[in-house]
Design goal:
Blueprint: H1 6-14, H2 17-27, H3 29-39, H4 45-68, H5 73-83, H6 85-93, H7 98-121, H8 129-148
Helix pairs in contact: 2-3, 2-4, 2-8, 4-5, 4-6, 4-7, 6-7, 7-8
InterPro entries: DUF3429 (IPR021836)
Protein name: DUF3429 domain-containing protein
Transmembrane segments: 6-27, 47-68, 88-115, 127-148
């Protein structure tokens, strides 16, 4: 695996901020309540994580769709079909309360990592893709654990 471009690494890490913020406000309930009063309940705790997480899974569907455009024939068809799964997962599996939604979101990000690996095996993702995605996926899943447990 090769090193991701600096810009991709910085933007990927910046994308972790809502997950980290949400985990912080769950782990520090008093701070979370103060933040909710100041900026609104939607922007703290599991709410920010779950809403943003569903958006990111949908975004990642678009990324995989872009990778699929590099393929031809049956591999392209498979790539297009697989690329829709993260968005569909987010749509169907992130309701039902914060614990089940966070559990399903964490599972979605773990499954997304498997899709990332498949697109990389097919040679459709950049050589550095898995280096970036493993770290980001691990961080997202870890930040969802306080909501799950």
């Amino acid at each position: 695996m090769t090193r991701p471009p600096t810009s991709a690494l910085i933007l990927g890490c910046a994308g972790l901020v809502p997950f980290l913020w949400g985990a912080l406000t769950v782990l520090m309930p008093g701070f979370g309540q103060q933040a909710a009063t100041l900026i609104g309940g939607r922007f703290v705790g599991p709410y920010v994580q779950l809403f943003y997480g569903a958006i990111i899974l949908s975004f990642m569907s678009g990324v995989l769709w872009g990778f699929a455009t590099k393929a031809d024939g049956p591999r392209a068809a498979a790539g297009y079909a697989l690329s829709t799964l993260p968005a569909l997962w987010a749509f169907f599996m992130t309701g039902g309360g914060p614990t089940s939604a966070a559990t399903n979101l964490a599972a979605g990000f773990a499954a997304l990592l498997l899709l990332d690996a498949q697109f990389a095996r097919w040679g459709l993702a950049p050589a550095w893709w898995m280096t970036l995605r493993i770290g980001l996926s691990a961080a997202v899943i870890l930040t969802l654990l306080p909501v799950i447990f």
